[in-house]
Design a protein that fits this description.
single chain, 303 residues, alpha/beta, 2 domains, 7-stranded parallel beta sheet, 3-stranded mixed beta sheet, globular, Lipid_A_modif_metabolic_enz, NAD(P)-bd_dom_sf, Nucleoside-diphosphate-sugar epimerase, Epimerase_deHydtase
Length: 303
């Protein structure tokens, strides 16, 4: 039986992946700096530092998933060198070590933020231009560097849309429902652009399929569900009440921010107006994967 090695095995996605694989009867090694890993996994407490020997992590036949990295945009802006290491250079060093050990496959969890898609376009894996912000740029550089490596093991990249699911996310959604229900009845929400999402369970299924697909090599896949959501649709689903969206309220609220668009916080607020729509057509056509989850059902507490 092939062993799975999950780098970042105690994070939100990595931990969920470890539990998913264990429940399927797989042998799993969780790797992170935490002292203990998910239940049922072998765990190796290891700090991803440039000076550490990465070769001891892998053996022949391993299926490696890189689910670590620096994800918070604010954290990346404050520490661009760490973002570059964890999102770009560290995955390359791990790929080299895994390949030297005879690993079977290596999957890198990137992000749809690696490319900035054209406004209002349903983006595929080739749409847009490389991101300029620290987080997106570090993911883009990680992708380019990985694909440039002359390795023998199968290498594939997955760009998830915004991921939802898990116990902590469900608890947050529950807390917001009452507030959104009251807001929806009293006042309109600012109009916003639409966003793509993918459920955590669907993402885990995509990772497993991509890692095990013998004919998939050097592919980039977007993982996203087919529906899109703006702020009003999110509020309506979470509250159960019809929510109005008001474009003039958006213009009013963002007017003081526009002259400050070069500041990170102002840039983030102005992104609310933009739509980022992503297609998982390549993943669906290549592998037997379908997004079963729907963000609206998650917000309603259905799933």
């Amino acid at each position: 039986m092939a062993r799975w090695v999950v780098i970042g095995g105690t994070g939100t996605i990595g931990g969920a992946l470890c539990r998913h694989l264990v429940s399927a009867g797989q042998q799993v090694l969780s790797v992170s700096r935490a002292p203990r890993g998910p239940e049922g996994c072998e765990h190796f407490s290891f700090a991803l530092l440039p000076e550490n020997d990465l070769s001891e992590l892998f053996r022949a036949g391993d299926q490696v998933v890189y689910a670590a990295g620096l994800a918070g945009r604010g954290d990346c802006e404050r520490n661009p060198q760490l973002a570059r290491w964890l999102n770009s250079d560290c995955p390359v060093a791990l790929l080299r070590a895994a390949d030297s050990a005879g690993a079977e496959s290596f999957v890198y969890l990137s992000s749809v933020k690696a490319l900035r898609p054209p406004a209002g376009v349903l983006a595929n894996e080739d749409s847009g231009i490389p991101a300029a912000d620290v987080y997106g740029r570090s993911k883009w550089l990680g992708e380019r560097q990985l694909l440039a490596e002359p390795v023998r093991c199968r290498l594939n990249l997955i760009r998830p849309a915004s991921v939802y699911g898990g116990d902590s996310a469900a608890a947050r959604a529950q807390r917001w429902r009452g507030l959104l229900r009251t807001w929806a009845r009293l006042a309109p929400l600012p109009a916003s652009g639409c966003r793509s999402f993918v459920s955590l369970s669907d993402l885990l299924a995509a990772i497993a399929l991509v890692a095990e697909a013998a004919d998939c090599n050097r592919e980039i896949f977007i993982a996203a569900e087919p529906r899109f959501y703006d702020l009003a649709a999110i509020a309506s689903a979470a509250s159960g009440a019809r929510t109005r969206a008001c474009s003039w309220l958006t213009r009013l609220l963002l007017a003081p921010v526009r002259p400050l668009r070069r500041l990170p916080i102002a840039h983030k607020l102005l992104e609310l107006e933009q739509s980022e729509l992503y297609s998982a057509a390549r993943l669906r056509s290549t592998l037997p994967w379908r997004a079963e989850g729907r963000y609206s059902e998650f917000l309603r507490g259905v799933s």
